[in-house]
Amino acid sequence: MQPLSHPTLWELVTKTGLTPGFFLSDRSQSVALGALASATSLGIDLEQARGKSVVIYAERQLASALAAIELDGIARRIILCPPDLAVANLPSVISNAEADTVLSEEPDRLVEHVSGVSVAACGLTLTGCGPRGADRVTEWLLFTSGTTGNPKMVVHTLQSLTGPLGDAGRAAPRPSAAKWSSFYDIRRYGGLQILLRALTEGAPMALSEASEPVGDFLARLGSFGVTHISGTPSHWRRALMSPEIKKISPGYVRLSGEIADQAVLNQLQSVFPAAKIAHAFASTEAGVAFDVTDGLAGFPAEWVGRPGAPVEMRVIDATLRIRSTRLAGGYAGDAARVLADEDGFVDTGDTVALRDGRYYFTGRREGVINVGGLKVHPEEVEAVLNQHPNVRMSRVRGRRSPITGAIVVADIVLEHEGDSFAQTREEILISCRERLPAHKIPAFVTQVPSLEINAAGKLLRNA
Amino acid sequence: MTSRMADNTEPSVRSTILDEIHRIAALHNKQLAPLTDALPLMESGLDSLCVAVLVASLDDALELDPFAEDENLAFPVTLGDFIQLYENAAA
Q: What distance lies between CA A369 and its chain's CA centroid?
């Protein structure tokens, strides 16, 4: 076997993993990572996974994390499914990722939903296994958030997910006794960043759980002794409104995934006076671009246009573009889809405005709405609204919220003036509740006499 | 603590907030805990999304958005804190 130029995740984990304080835990269980040196969490022989593309479709973050640690360097691809990926989408994921195997905690229940692949178990039960040898650079396929229709996957490697970024990208000190956590699910880019940081540094991490009340999670993190913790500004606002926030006293607090406004930064600094508060810009496609640690919203204008910097940024048509070694390699199953422009920059779609020597994020170019870190495409919601026979046309837009960044609202034009708006609104909301997750359902539906369209017949989104 | 004397705008801010909480909880199928001033808002049965809708509804109903006005605002923890925030903004 050719030696690889970089260690695999399993090698990094088991090298440092013999210390008893190196573990991953969730609400109900804790797994000492040193055990993976001679045991496996998978229901298949690792040799059967060698060179294969493996979909990790686990319920628990802990099971996904263990499987990913074991398969890096062995599988051709790891496809890390987010918690909300519907089983109905699995066949297209399997086809786009050219998958051979699907891992699940309940393989028997999954068999009927997939074909042409083997289905095997993953989970928290460790069984002894022999030595393993890595022989390849595994591709990590991550899902982009908030896509319409079939989910899109981008291709990363352990290197593109963890590589150094120079001064702008690594603000947190490297502590000897760090204890990590994140409000994010580790199957999303923001959470995976924290997991990989903990794993490569040999530090324990407490994983979040979607069904756990925020107060319980904070109390659990208090007992764990969390020192480094990340989340979206919305996660943090929710935590700041919980009395249990007093149970934690982290030294490093990180925000990403949404625009961090000055109010949330100030409030965090006042609740955690000794902590370093950093807000980061990162996306699944563009990777981590920078951490801002001066306590101010936005980022210094001089960070843009530094040729040769580890992360290069451009602002074109008021939109941020990024080039760095942390970019994804492309889209899986869609080679024609271009991730970067001809100069190698990824267009983030995030718009910025320059004020007093700083760039501030102002939103998304295509009208994509960011509700607490979850992206909503207006067209997807409009498609549901427009199916109502009384709706002639609709426009879905974001309304600013100091709690979740934005909420979804809709304007509708009725087909006939005599139609009852109240009844139509009621029926629209019922069909939205049947077909859309809560954050995509319009919080307000307003009747308008007309909606403007442009010369090309497209709805004017900024009108 | 919140007093209900003197200022006659005060009960209306409070009752508007409580009415909106009940309306939004019903709309989102959330079971509410008994609403007392000491109840932490995040334990009321409303999730963040509901609180976001509540804040937007109150912006419309009372024309008040205390969150937007102060960058150094302490985030309200209890329902009493939340009501107080709006009562102060209305004063």
A: 15
Partners of residue B58 in chain A, C-beta under 8 Å: none
Closest partner CB to B42 (pick from A241, A263, A439)? A241
Which ipTM score applies to this complex?
0.88
Cα of A231 to nearest chain B Cα, Å: 14
pLDDT digits (tens, 9 = 90+) for A286-315: 999 999 999 999 999 999 998 888 899 999
Mean of pLDDT over chain B: 87
Q: Does B90 touch chain A (CB under 8 A)?
A: no
Residue spans of the domains in chain A: they are 9-351, 369-447
Reported CATH class of domain A9-351:
alpha beta
Residue with tokens 């399997």: A94
H helical segments located in A139-254? 158-162, 189-201, 214-224, 233-240
Residue B20's closest CA among B45, B40, B49, B50? B50
The answer to whether residue A222 scores a pLDDT higher than 50 is yes
Which CATH number is correct for A369-447, 3.40.50.410, 3.30.300.30, 3.30.360.10, 3.50.50.60? 3.30.300.30
Tokens of A117: 């692949």
Domains annotated on chain B, with CATH: 10-90 (1.10.1200.10)
Amino acid at A297: A
Give the mean model confidence (pLDDT) for residues A264-284.
95
Give B57 to chain A, closest Cα distance, Å: 9
